[in-house]
Amino acid sequence: MQDRIFNFFRLRVPLDKCEFVYMLKRDETEVLLADRSGVSDFVAKVESFFASKGKISGYRETVPVVEVDGLRFVEFQHLRYVYEETEQRFVPGAVALGRTYNDMQQEASGLSDTEARHRINTVGSNSVDVEMPSLPVSMAHEFFTLFYIYQIMCYYVWYYFTYWNMGIVMTVVVLGAAVVNIYTQRQIQSSIVKMTRYRTDVTVFRAGEWRVLSSPDMAPGDLVKVSENWVVPCDMAIVKGTTVCDESMLTGESMPVQKFPIPERSSEVYDPEKGSKKHTLFAGTRVLSSGRNEEILAIVQTTGAHTTKGQLIQSILFPIPMRFKYNEHLKVLIGLLLVYAVIACILVINFLLSNGKLSNRYAAFCYAIFVLSCVISPLLPVVITVGQVNASQRLEKLGVFSLNVQRITLAGKVRIFCFDKTGTLTKQGLDFLGVQPVKDSLFTPIVNDVKDAPSSEELLYALTTCHSVGSLEDRLVGNEVEVRMFTATGWELVEKEGEQPLVRSKVDPGLELEFVKRYDFDHHRMSMSVVVRNRKSGKYYVFCKGSYERMQQLSTPGSVPTDYKSVADRLAKDGCYVLGLSYRELPSHWTHEQVVEFANNREAVDESLSLLGLILFRNELKDDTADAIAKLKAGDIRTVMITGDNAMCGCYIARQSGMVSSSARVILGEMVSTTEVKKLVWRDVDSEEEYDLPAVKNLVERGEDVELAVTGVAFDYLVSMGEIKGLLLHIRIYSRMTPDGKVECVRLHMETGAVTGMCGDGGNDCGALRFAHCGVALSDAEASVVSPFTSKSKTIQSVVDLCREGRCSVATSFVSVKFLIVYGLIGSVMWGF
């Protein structure tokens, strides 16, 4: 309103000459619950009809035009928009950086002062400055709304008729609710201000020399030195050195994450959201001390509100408006009540002035308003939010945090809840059981103690090198599976500045294996690979580790036992986390340069491998998982497992947790290669009996005690063939799912019209957590960029608490609204007629 008043006294001029710009960002309204009744669509059409002609809903603000060094720009929602002469409009400020790793390496030479200043002017400084509003401003925002004005009008009428008792009580309630709202909002705003006001000194290579600058003066493309025990001020890509980072603030990942430099020679496109995460330091995360005193250099990629942390702040400051169907229904209800109230008011005024012989028209009007306030109670907004606020406070005491209390009400309508397995249903750590070696294409007995006593030296070398483990202050960090595997070998990891890491035997200190090339785990390949050199013998090896299905595909048929899959399936069905190992010894006549050239081609690295064996881990259920699943099932919430692990291990955990009853048959759908093509085969995981798709549909339609499970490849096949919708609500276990597959699975469940939740540890399920109606990240952070809810308790009991409090919030709102409506209708009849 203030902007509209000021703009009334301003002249409209072209953008190239203006001093102010009226900015609008369209609302991308999020529909939180499908409404099949059509009421929400009707409300939207009515609102559109009564809206101003051509008016678009969204955020509006009049911002001043600033001109610096010949550049005209405005800032709106902490983002800078630069005037583009050719397009004759303001466009988002952007700096063109290298898209591929090769381009980025070529740009790793720092910026000149002129170029840095131009880039800062284009995209803005590296800061998101949020001002804390004064108390009067907060009060004005709270009280100067249409419904508060309506409340004040109603209470004035009550006082006019000396209805002191009720008037005072209602006034105290509304003022108390307003005080609570103002206090809560200021607390949130205070935490946001603290989050944004971070400043630190940064060593930047600017104009050919190293300088110490303040973090707001950083520009995209700057080359910076990464310090240890340092909170990263912007998103940057590492070009030299390795480090370890704590990302729990953003992703919820509790384990420190190892970060590596970008490849020196690669035409692969840099994508920090997917495959390039391992090279990226995100703003707001903490670089930990590795103890290696290694020089770490990085190139700034994004600054300010463009960073991952900046996007989190943006989502808090300017949330996407949500259309919850019950709120839309309430609008219709209020409309009907308003029609009834207007009719009642007309009848009351007519009765008082004619039959009642009342000559004071002002008193008659006030009495009509009194009747109106009875029908449409001023307490309606209070009773709707009181349940949400109280539920939020109780959840915080239980360690569950949310930045949007409206989501709590939505949690009360959840009908399907999806769970990741490892670290969510099961404990974070895994116990190393041993290895089952393969020799001469035959399995040999399981070896539990692998310390320098495996069946072959290649198997020992694979266990000590085929991982991405790093060190942090003399302790190992990285993926929990790999840390346990490497620890079991009894070897030590040696990392020195300027040298490739190596592993060394404690029994034979002269036996050292040096890393030549390492390809980290790829979710699409389902494997990782390393090329290493034995310093003692001079031999070069390729070792590959991944899902046992993938290792069967990569290994030569002659090295794979005939009973390989049945043995691996049996181990997985017994609750083991099973991985496969393969290797290849490179030709002895190859020079080091030839090996390096070969190692740069991952397709070649993963060829002609020989199977070494299986690695076995035990992943036990968390103590309260079974109890939480039982409570969710008792609350008529369907529980589903979406895991990247093997289907057999998923079946074991599902049965142990009670997600699948002990009496139910589990039928697994997977793609099987034939002589011509791959086909979908369904088989009972216990009896091995096979079924075709029509038979499976017949089983579930007859309501037999059958649960379905599918692999990720089978899931993709069912989606492509259009068969997934008929089976979706009968599939209990989704295995070998990629991060994108998890998102697709959650999306399909949401399309059924059911409110869908997702719970995970924030690792490879970030996309699914963000996409679901109610995403719960098991994290140490109170606010996470990946999900609406975070749980510090790190157990799925928090899901039970959330659903319980959500239902409580819904019930409180419904009952309170019903009471006020019935009370108002009865009162209008008693007082008006």
UniProtKB/TrEMBL annotation:
<dbReference type="GO" id="GO:0016887">
    <property type="term" value="F:ATP hydrolysis activity"/>
</dbReference>
<keyword id="KW-0547">Nucleotide-binding</keyword>
<comment type="similarity">
    <text>Belongs to the cation transport ATPase (P-type) (TC 3.A.3) family. Type V subfamily.</text>
</comment>
<dbReference type="InterPro" id="IPR008250">
    <property type="entry name" value="ATPase_P-typ_transduc_dom_A_sf"/>
</dbReference>
<keyword id="KW-1133">Transmembrane helix</keyword>
<dbReference type="GO" id="GO:0016020">
    <property type="term" value="C:membrane"/>
</dbReference>
<dbReference type="GO" id="GO:0046872">
    <property type="term" value="F:metal ion binding"/>
</dbReference>
<feature type="transmembrane region" description="Helical">
    <location>
        <begin position="365"/>
        <end position="387"/>
    </location>
</feature>
<feature type="transmembrane region" description="Helical">
    <location>
        <begin position="332"/>
        <end position="353"/>
    </location>
</feature>
<dbReference type="InterPro" id="IPR018303">
    <property type="entry name" value="ATPase_P-typ_P_site"/>
</dbReference>
<dbReference type="InterPro" id="IPR036412">
    <property type="entry name" value="HAD-like_sf"/>
</dbReference>
<keyword id="KW-0812">Transmembrane</keyword>
<dbReference type="InterPro" id="IPR059000">
    <property type="entry name" value="ATPase_P-type_domA"/>
</dbReference>
<dbReference type="Pfam" id="PF13246">
    <property type="entry name" value="Cation_ATPase"/>
</dbReference>
<dbReference type="GO" id="GO:0140358">
    <property type="term" value="F:P-type transmembrane transporter activity"/>
</dbReference>
<keyword id="KW-1278">Translocase</keyword>
<feature type="transmembrane region" description="Helical">
    <location>
        <begin position="810"/>
        <end position="831"/>
    </location>
</feature>
<feature type="domain" description="P-type ATPase A">
    <location>
        <begin position="200"/>
        <end position="316"/>
    </location>
</feature>
<keyword id="KW-0460">Magnesium</keyword>
<keyword id="KW-0472">Membrane</keyword>
<dbReference type="InterPro" id="IPR023214">
    <property type="entry name" value="HAD_sf"/>
</dbReference>
<dbReference type="InterPro" id="IPR044492">
    <property type="entry name" value="P_typ_ATPase_HD_dom"/>
</dbReference>
<dbReference type="InterPro" id="IPR006544">
    <property type="entry name" value="P-type_TPase_V"/>
</dbReference>
<keyword id="KW-0479">Metal-binding</keyword>
<protein>
    <submittedName>
        <fullName>Putative cation-transporting ATPase 13A2</fullName>
    </submittedName>
</protein>
<dbReference type="GO" id="GO:0019829">
    <property type="term" value="F:ATPase-coupled monoatomic cation transmembrane transporter activity"/>
</dbReference>
<feature type="transmembrane region" description="Helical">
    <location>
        <begin position="167"/>
        <end position="184"/>
    </location>
</feature>
<dbReference type="GO" id="GO:0005524">
    <property type="term" value="F:ATP binding"/>
</dbReference>
<keyword id="KW-0067">ATP-binding</keyword>
<dbReference type="InterPro" id="IPR023298">
    <property type="entry name" value="ATPase_P-typ_TM_dom_sf"/>
</dbReference>
<dbReference type="Pfam" id="PF00122">
    <property type="entry name" value="E1-E2_ATPase"/>
</dbReference>
<dbReference type="InterPro" id="IPR023299">
    <property type="entry name" value="ATPase_P-typ_cyto_dom_N"/>
</dbReference>
<dbReference type="InterPro" id="IPR001757">
    <property type="entry name" value="P_typ_ATPase"/>
</dbReference>
